[in-house]
Amino acid sequence: MNILMLNASPRRGGNIDRMLSAMHQEAQKRGAEVTYFRLDELQYAPCRGCMACRSRRHCVMPTDDAPAVLQALQQCQLLIVGAPCYWSSMPGTLKMLFDRMVYGMMGENRYGMPRPLLRGVKCMVVSTSTTPFPLNLLLGQTWGVVTSLRKIFRWSGIRIIKVFQYGGTRQHSLTALQIQQGRHYLRRYISRHS
Question: Where do the domains of the chain lie, and which CATH numbers do they carry?
Answer without folding.
Answer: 2-193 (3.40.50.360)
